[in-house]
Amino acid sequence: MKSEERVKPALEGEVEYLPIEGLPQHDSVWGLCTGPDGNIYLADCGEITGGLSVFLLRYKPAERRLEYLLDVGPALGQPPDNGLATQSKIHYCLISGSDGLLYCATHASGPPRGDPIWRPWNCWDDPARWFPGSYLFTYNPATGELTNFGIGPVKEGTRAMALDEKRQLLYGITWPRNHLYLFHLDTRRYLDLGRIGDVNPQAIFLDREGNAWTTDDYGYFLKCDGRTHEITRLLTRCPYEPYRIGWHNVPYDVIPAPDWSCFYGTDWGYESHLWRFDPYAGPEGKIEDLGRAFGPANFKTDLYLERWQVRGLVFGMDGRLYFTMRLGWEEPEEIWLLRLDVRTGQRERVCPLIFGDHRPPAIASATPDFYGNLYFAEAGAAPSGLYIYRPEKASARPDVFSFKDIKPWG
């Protein structure tokens, strides 16, 4: 694709497609975050082709330049050709700390080199093919130093993670057994808090007091007290369609409101709804259903679990909530960048994510830079890439957002 074909006009701005051409076999960017230095950090994963290790990269907005930083598996002592299921992935477990470090946990899904597919259940007791476990580590992009804390959950990956810097805690959710765990960074102590269900949430998030939140299989909010680590199941739950029972309605993506007064999220279910959750509104909190993220309310999204899923939530410099969704009621179906004015409920199309013959199979996550540009990570394509929305009113200086606006979870 020619460079001029990678930029197209969008509502009140333009969108650029940036393929990660240096890693042609890597197929998904799940981990995506903004560092206190204003740079964008991403984890390019190898889920489909066997024998690939996840790779850390940095995008510098000031220079519009992509840098290749670290092949993670070999750095952890797990080269991708050792015959085991690979350290192929950092899922929603790439978090920037205010200290400039990246806090990371690896995840499982990539097959060993030469194998067409890998499943943890089939290989659980096979020492030649199993996944050793999720490595917890920090990486300093300024110096290139990696600090390896070793394996946390044995034989499991980590699917979602949050960082409580004040208490020096990492919260993680394992896959496939769906356990909630703590890792004490100061003492390097791993603590399994037990299984929270069968369906694996894609998000765990923190409130202002450092309490951790996720849900059970039916969308009921679970609160892990930041001081006692006691887990409480609330009566408040994520919204669901009246003809369903809410199963598999765990959170897919959750972000704080710009003032951190509440949280906006979407489900990893069949609903394709957006919701607003206020954990401070009494002992049970308060949930507000914002309805179907986009399109006709009566459009049935429950034919396929992920086909019309809402992903990549991020607030723009205009105070609107940006997200992506495949518009399944239209022909042809395309993934669009969309936005919602959370004050008025107005929904708008920003841009279809089509560049020549290239269409993203899915969008995984999103983050802003300090100039006001928004970044959306691609999943399911090799090479994978970023979609960058540049508003017309983006600042020439990195003063629109700051690190306080960046969520401390993946």
Please tell me about this protein's structure.
There is one protein chain. With 410 residues, the protein is mostly beta strands. The chain has one domain (3-405): 7 Propeller (Methylamine Dehydrogenase, Chain H). It is 2% helix and 43% strand. The chain is built from two helices and 29 strands. It has helices spanning 72-75, 120-123, and strands at residues 7-10, 13-19, 28-34, 40-45, 55-60, 65-71, 94-96, 102-105, 133-140, 145-154, 157-164, 169-175, 179-184, 189-195, 205-206, 212-215, 220-224, 231-237, 250-256, 263-268, 273-278, 286-292, 311-315, 321-326, 335-340, 347-352, 362-368, 374-379, 385-391. A five-stranded antiparallel beta sheet has the order 1-2-29-28-27, with no helix packed on it. β3 and β4 (40-45) form a beta hairpin. The longest helix is centred in the first third of the chain and has 4 residues, at 72-75. The two termini are 31 Å apart.
